[in-house]
Amino acid sequence: MQSFKLFLETLGFIITLFTIIPLVKNDYWVFRVFEYPRLQKLLINLAIIVVYIILFKISSFFGIAFIILLSLNAAFLIYKVYSFTFIAKKTLLNAHKPDTPNQISIISSNVFQDNKNNAGCLKMLHANDPDIILLLETDDFWYKSTEELKEKYPYQALVPLENTYGMLLYSKLELVDTEVRYLVDTEIPSIKTLVKLASGQNIRMYCLHPTPPVPGENRYSTERDKELLMVAKEVKENNLPTIVVGDLNDVAWSYTTELFTKISGLLDPRIGRGFYNTFHAWYPFLRFPLDHVFCSTDFKLIRLARLDNFSSDHFPILITLYSTNRKLQHSRRNLLQMRMIWNWHRKKSIKKCLNNFLIILSFENYYNYFFVFI
């Protein structure tokens, strides 16, 4: 029994260490890979606390300190993953009675290059019938296996590669000014395009698949982080409704992803709805949300779903968005900015708060929204 107690204590200190390591802002893979299993660390941490309290008498200073340490670690982990639970507040609102011409549905799927179940992939795509399909890790086999999609999806950007970073983009909606770009590596493509909705509205879309910070791929996260932040800066300077989609090889709660959303101003539809873990499909306990769809505040959500796996190591993800009236959404963005400043200055005088509001909005907008805060 004493050896089991020692095992629990050792495991508890290891879990705590794995929580602390990602707090070090270093690009080396050791410091970044432990960002991924936050939910797993939390579950193991809570299990250790429960088992330790049930089996052993907590009377010594060490025992009390050990439980306090694990409790603090659990509290921190809960704080970091709370946003991705259904009880958290949603940042991307649900759409009510959206009109079809302003809708867009996208399936993003990392097919796993060595996977040969193309029939399963095509069955999944035909069953869900999205407007846009993004297939990742696609080589010449997958390029030839999905050629039948060209009839139904006349607009394409096809970049098959043998290095696990190929991309196949199929669209029913018109694609304009499509670019295949190599932002940080001559072997890692990304796609930038303009999507024209049935209503005639234009949407900017970025398709990404940067390298992960793991041995055998890239020991540093520098290139991945650089690509994400380059796109974030472009999005910030772009006035069009925007969607960023792909396998970002990063979890939703990482420092880089948080910085990406902060700079770009894009919203994560998972916040307030769930984790929607897409990798690893073969190991239920080792699943992380690596496949992402971010969108600007011009959208509302109709549907978000993780689809059935077809022998890939990733689950496909489906999202259906509704593009709202730009003018109204711009007002909502102003309102959100006002609320952020109100929270920031809530302990200061009302006069100072109102002065900050007037910096952002014209007097007319201020007059329209003032009563939200009083």
Descriptive notes:
With 374 residues, this protein is an alpha+beta fold. The strands form 2 sheets. A 6-stranded mixed β-sheet has the order 3-4-2-1-11-10. A hairpin with an 8-residue loop joins strand 5 and strand 6. The protein is 39% helix and 19% strand. Helix 1 crosses helix 4, helix 8 (222-236) runs parallel beside helix 9 (255-264) and helix 10 packs antiparallel against helix 11.
Mean pLDDT: 87
Beta-strand share of residues: 15-25%
Silhouette: elongated
Number of beta strands: 11
Instruction: Report the end-to-end length measured between terminal Cα atoms.
Output: 61 Å
How are strands sequenced across the largest beta sheet? 3-4-2-1-11-10
Give the helix level as a range of percent.
25-40%
Largest sheet: 6 strands, mixed
Written as H for each helix and E for each strand, in order along the chain, the element string is: HHHHEHEHHEEEEEHEHEEEHHH
**What is the rounded Rg?**
23 Å
Work out the helix count.
12
Instruction: Flag low-confidence runs.
Output: 327-332, 343-374
Protein structure class? alpha+beta
Reconstruct the topology from this structure.
Blueprint: H1 2-20, H2 29-33, H3 38-55, H4 61-81, E1 103-110, H5 118-128, E2 132-136, H6 140-145, H7 149-152, E3 155-159, E4 167-171, E5 174-181, E6 190-196, E7 202-208, H8 222-236, E8 242-247, H9 255-264, E9 291-295, E10 299-306, E11 317-323, H10 326-344, H11 350-360, H12 363-369
Parallel strand pairs: 1-2, 7-8
Antiparallel strand pairs: 1-11, 2-4, 3-4, 5-6, 6-7, 8-9, 10-11
Helix pairs in contact: 1-3, 1-4, 3-4, 8-9, 10-11
